[in-house]
Amino acid sequence: MQAASRESYAAAYERFEAYAGSAEPASLADTAEALLSVAALLGREPRLRRALADPARPGEDRAGLLGNLLAGKVGAEAQELLTTMASGRWSTPSELLEATERLGVEALLASADRAGDLGEVEDELFRFGQLVSGDPGLSSVLADSIAPPAQRAELTRTLLAGKAKPATVRLVEVALAGFGGRSFSGSLTRLVELAADRRDRQVAYVTVAAPLSEDEERRLGAKLAELYGREVTVKQTVNPEILGGLSVQVGSDLYDGTVLRRLNDTRNALAKR
């Protein structure tokens, strides 16, 4: 987001956090649904999106426009958050849409957090991403933006029925719609990171040739936490093709100590002689 949009989102987020600190999980889930529904509306209605982000219109007018549209259709908390956002300054209409969707996701994560389920939701999102990436047919179906979203959402609900928290299922549906304009896999990755961030943790994506033991994973997490000054949650992917060693990605930092990388480095060095 550009500077003006970041400031407007920060104001809405501050108001949201004040509410979320004492709200019940069900209330937060309802607010999340309202925010995500309005984000979907903004995605379908470019004229409304432009009107609500129009810098030539006073913020009060824009807030009033959205308030009248939503009157009696969403809860008081959601309406207050949405009119706060509508009254802000947005660099582009698309950034208003992005911010509304992001706040809806934050409300879902806060709901899971208040219910004591956020760690499980984070793990379920990651495991579902692994399941999809390991099945080319399923990956192709879920990533197909031409297929009706409702059809793909129904498939994920069937796959996750009885196996995942309601918040996880809803977040997967958000990912199917392309959270923040990302691909399905990119959306899942970002949602995992947001879940970890709400728990004040960093995510480390670790690729290994064979699974780490619980003790090895714990020791690796402790070393990374010491390095980054923050608790780290380790997400393992097993890939025998790396032959041995491991690679670790934390944000934009990549530490590749795999046997495959060393072999490739040796091969490249020999080829230059």
From TrEMBL:
Its main location: membrane. Keywords: ATP synthesis, Cell membrane, CF(1), Hydrogen ion transport, Ion transport, Membrane, Transport. The keyword Transport applies. It is a peripheral membrane protein. The keyword Ubl conjugation does not apply. Pfam families: OSCP. It is found in: Cell membrane; Membrane. Belongs to the ATPase delta chain family. This is ATP synthase subunit delta. It comes from Micromonospora polyrhachis.
